[in-house]
Write a structure and sequence with these properties.
The protein has 272 residues and is of the alpha/beta class. Helix content is 21%, strand content 28%. It has helices at residues 15-26, 49-53, 62-74, 116-119, 148-156, 173-185, and strands at residues 2-7, 33-35, 77-85, 91-98, 104-108, 129-132, 135-139, 161-165, 188-192, 197-200, 203-206, 212-214, 220-223, 230-235, 245-247, 250-251. The strands form four sheets. The chain has a six-stranded mixed sheet with strand order 5-4-3-2-1-14. The chain has a six-stranded mixed sheet with strand order 6-7-8-9-12-13, with helices on one face. Strand 12 and strand 13 (220-223) form a beta hairpin. It binds acetamide.
Length: 272
Amino acid sequence: MKIGYYQYAPEFHDPETTLKRIERALTGVEADLIVLPELALSGYLFADRQETAACAEPVPGPVSDRFSRLAADSGCAFVYGCIEQDGADNLYNSSVFISPDGTIHVYRKAHLFNREKLLFTPGDSGFFTFSFRGAAIGMLVCFDHLFPEAARTLALSGAQIICHPSNLVLPGTAQITTRSRSIENRVYWILANRTGSETSGPVSCTYTGKSQITGPDGSVLTSSSEEDEELVVIEVDPAAAHDKFISKRNHVLKDRRPELYTGISLPYREVQ
Ligand code: ACM
């Protein structure tokens, strides 16, 4: 299976221009699955909910229709981050999977980072997997990487490839954590980050690039630069993520001791 990512800087608050760029870059791409960054059309910084809503879209909707056409024309599935507007008044920081046959899956970011808490409703989709061309796929969005429970939940439901649209601002952190998540769950991990910088009022962000794909043994199979636009595709064997043995006698999922982890589902108790 050919999997990859497209690393770039979206046009700030201009989904239509960004989408045209994406269509130019990805039309005819020779791959099975390409992952784009978090909030791949709009950029990341917003002053308030009103400004965020101006770049939001329903899913399915006109933007997912454009991705559907791109997927059908190129025979490739895409995962992209967007501001999803539901029928009520919620805005979600979502990751959308679209396959060439028009199948759509939507994951809504569970763990909101910093000012996202002012703009978005925390995701309610839970962590789920689905099948595409014989591989079990799961999705997370950016800050979710710091919660190992999220990736573990996907691995326990059979995920072989975790797609991770991101807008990372802390240099180097996620390249380490997602590599660890690959090792501890023995899965492929596509970290699709963005580049560039943005300013909104007093707030500025520089995005750290360095998208990467890691394998079930934790090897870094490909990694990108901090600043360049890059479309990267590599060939992998998703079945390798079925092998959960890290030694002859150690299966990373079956060796778990859930009876000793009951505290994991309790709220954090601060020590006074
Ligand atoms: C992030 O979750 N975009 C840092």
